[in-house]
Fold these 4 entries.
Entry 1:
Amino acid sequence: MAAQETAQETIQGFLDGLASSAPTPGGGGAAAISGAMGAALLSMVCNLTIGKKKYVEVEEELKGILGQSEALRAKLTAMIADDVEAFDAVMGAYGLPKGTDDEKAARAAKIQDALKVATDVPLACCRACREVIDLAQAVADKGNLNVISDAGVAVLSAHAGLRSAALNVYVNAKGLDDRTFAQTRLDELEALLGEAGARNEAIYEVVKAKVN
């Protein structure tokens, strides 16, 4: 299935693809959809808060968050296709001929180029998931209490997406010969992961206190 078609599948179709023996969609696509679900849930809470008299004081702030969460939802959904394309490029590079020294050199170069892309694609997913986590704080604090549990689900989904995508950064960076390139990506990844777990738990506790 083409990469763009993967992002347009039904939920059942996507899950069937994950469960199948086909290599894509895989963990990278699952990470992206986890982040996208988190963004979508933040949008839902915003949409059910905006226009309510009880929340008029936070309406403008949540309108701004809604614009950001919808942009992140679109970005993360598109990353499902990006992950398929990156994986296919790596597999294609490994499948190149290696009968002569020239072919071996060309193949090795193509593999390295593909691995760089395959490192940057999940790193972009990590960035977007971290943005969803950061947005969730205000939604959990100020969103409509009738649906505030969904803000908790949102941050948990985004955190799962972040940590899941991080695994693909690690595995692809490990195969890079350009260690400077690899280390800059790993340093950024650690910064994105830093405090994300603590923030995730803090937001979850805020939501838990409101629903308990």
Entry 2:
Amino acid sequence: MSMSPAAIIAVAEAEIGYHEGRSADGHWNNKQKFSDAVPSLEWSNFQAWCATFVSWCAMQSGNADVYPRTASCALGVAWFRARGRLTEFPSVGAQVFFGAGGGSHTGLVIDFDETTITTVEGNTNDSGSAEGDGVYRKVRRRRDAYVYGYGHPDFAQGPRRAVEAKWVIDGPTAPTPATKSVVVRAGQTLVGIAAAAGVALSVILGLNPQVATHPDVIKPGDVIVLPATAEPAPVTPVPLPTPTTPTPTVPAPKPTTPTPAPSPAFPGVGKFGTGADNAYVTKLGEMLARRGGGRFYTEGPGPRWSESDRRAVAAFQAAQGWTGTAADGIPGPETWRLLVTGQGRDIPAAAPSKLASSATPFPGDSYFHAGASNRFVTQLGQALVRHGYGTYYKQGPGPTWTESDRRATTAFQRAQGWRGTDANGYPGPETWKRLMR
């Protein structure tokens, strides 16, 4: 087969309808034919296999050299970014990545228009639940907050690709949007800069790989790249507490008096709630996803109001310290203002349940050292990839302890604020507990 988008699309479409195996209790178990057929990915059988499916399609179609060979979505993102071929615009044959940092799910783009992408994806389903079971053709909205970006293979002849709302046919070079730089000032956050500039946070992260791992850690004087059409982010002064005016420990309750409408103005409570179906519901969900609410959505925000929207709004309201009817999950003017301006507190990460903690107890220090080879090393590496540290692995985690495992563990420990022997690259009970969340 020749190296082309048509070849890999034909291979992928031929697998539509394929299903993974079932365990004795009737549940889907991630056992599939693709892992064993891809050299170096045999270990990934019984694991999430969306990225493995893309690697298999690439190999079967003669395109192995222009797609990453990995079972990790995060490593796939890093592979395309390192080659300057990761953008926000789709193309036929592109590998699309979903979720925070692109590390949640992946598939192949087989067609697109101004508003949608048509994909073939492995380890997914038609219902949108978290339990994937096979290979499906899916149609998704291009500007869904769940869509992170697209990796463009370096085909010999460039496929049809999107630029803004148009599309063209040309050579293999991926589109490079015009950019400009702004200097971070005191009190600014990356989320606030994205909201003020009117662009998605994922766009800014794609243009600024130096902060993509920890977008909440920026400081005055840092240079941030924005699309050239974005407006400069305004400065939001941060008042310093004084001895005579202690900083309140509990945020003020949700105001009951009218609040000046932000820009864009609050559309009214009638746009939200059971039965609502409009563009404001989509915008609300996208803003919530940027503030930590993406975990409430299985397919990404959309125009039809759902329980996912209500739970995400309630979580954001609770993060502001509001209770009772002030945190009922229906946005009011103040909720809308805080989301539009990027102010207020982000939704905190979900705490691990007692059941989840007891299901993966720390196995002990003896399982992690030079020469160790066991399933816990694989489990550690997979958790590190889920948390965004897959760039330390060249071909994916495995059962044998390597320097890649140690370096990835060190990076994770440092991200927790630990130093010295607390960040030595070897997991202890607390490192293990946080990784298994």
Entry 3:
Amino acid sequence: MTHSLSLVQARRLALAAQGFLAPPRQGVGAARLNGLIERLGVVQIDSVNALVRSHYLPLYSRLGDYPRELLEQAAWGTGRARRLFEYWGHEASLLPLSLYPLLRWRMRRAAEGGGIYGQLARFGREQQPLIRQVLQAVHERGALGAGSLTQRTLRAGPWWDWSAEKTALEWLFAAGEVTVAGRRGFERLYDLPERVLPSACLDHPEMTEAQAQRALLLRSARALGVATEKDLRDYYRLDPRDSQARLAELVEEGALVPVRVQGWTHTAYCAGEPSAVRGRPVSALLSPFDSLIWERARTERLFGFRYRLEIYTPQHKRVYGYYVLPFLHHERLVGRIDLRADRRADCLMVHAVHEEAPGLDDGALQALAEALRRLAAWLGLAQLQLPCRSPVAGRLRVLLVESLSDGPA
């Protein structure tokens, strides 16, 4: 029997799976933060720093005010404090250590020239002497960044203007021969896995590709709540052929249950029988790289919200702004807020506020004002400014008047 879900039920399953409907709690410690990341299974890393590095935001959206040092310790700390590793999960990602054995097959494929960008694969075939030389330098010198190796004797290509040594490190990283020990600013510091990761990760019995892919799809299903095959494969960026074969196996054994969702044209799946989820009022500003919304077609199906990044769109062609955060309020995406942290002025700048139909009512606008105040405080910014001219911005400005400096009216 195929279960049927209303759109409201599907949305609640998704929000609960992503950690948004948990009862509010006071205080955030390492155990709570690590538990949330284990639940999500992946946190995407992005270099854009218009507000704060994006990997900090998904945890803030769910936990509220938390010390960013907790994430840094989990990601780049030493000893028992380290609970995460960097790898290609959903793009560049922070992942729980429990997933390391599930991604060894991806490392093996990368070492054989598969599953990575064509330019990097070609470099791996053609530049093995340099790659071995760079690996030897890591072995001898310990954690180091590409800048300490760069000689600019070769060029890797036009994409990022990487040096040959940087490209060698990235090939070694994709192949699992080095990992990220820490970061200096935003620069990766690479070291040998055995000097960074717990032996339990490295000594875990090898899994076949099929075993690991099934486990990743199950992790995706638990993290998403309800999702189509394409949604599930996108979470850890599996190939369609692999994903479809593993999905059929999981359905046959009963680990994934097919469901019909109101308005969806493709079959969806749940990890086990779908259960009723009670709603809870929640408001949050979401990173553009939040796992709730990063699969844009699914975001549109769940929330009726068409979302596209405009960071790389020329300014005169942008519709909503440079760094736009969707605003989640009472289980709907009700607005888009273009935000920037002006650190020199010690100010959170609200460059634009856009309403979604049917608009931001008084309750949503009050919740948005409170969310902006809290975000500014968490970022350590003393002021809020709304240098935008729109009716909804005017209404918001009234609510924020006590927090605003004398910015443009």
Entry 4:
Amino acid sequence: MIGLVLAAGAGRRLRPYTDAVPKTLVPVDGTTTILDVCLRNLAAVGLDRVVVVVGYARQAVEVLRPTLEQRYGIDLELVVNPHAEDRNNAYSLWTAREHLREGVLLVNGDTVHPPSVEQTLLAAHDPDGARVLLALDTDKELADEEMKVSVDDRGRLARITKLMSPAEATGEYIGVSLIEPGAAEPLTDALRSTWERDPGLYYEDGYQEYADRGRPVRAVSLQPTTWVEVDDHADLARARDVACRC
């Protein structure tokens, strides 16, 4: 099992912080960045290899690579998404497809949360399995922008989309998932079909494609958890409060 961080995004709504660095390198606690929080969490659950998908302003991450490896005791590999500015993150995850067969704990590079999220997913993991496990917040009050999830009566993913009515949703996907080794090949094909259909789609749309093909995607409910996805300046203010308590 390795860690995987999707960190290719520009984060234009966070300018001027992201004029010269990607969103993942915006500080949330002194000099601690969002990427620091992601790597710290992955190291905390025993993962010593992490792949980071980079794109916009990738040189800023490349310069920090030796420091981050030493700071967190990890081997850090960078995978370049050459279409970070004109394709969405379904393509970003697809660019890391060669690593999925190892099993990955995937973290969005703009999410600040405690390591208990990773711990919960790993506790539900089957090393020989072919599932995708989604970290689900079932306590948060939902609105239109959230990545909402509904599950069927077997606990499997029925829908994952921002377009769902909050009343139909079981909870919100918080941007952390576990892809078991056996899911690698069929998920890679589902992701390819997704971004080829529309390069603006999310990797969560790839998860939907995977589920629609009869493959197992399960939501793992979290204990009440304080977390934030950092999209704009208001989110950043909340992330700084969350990071101080992680």
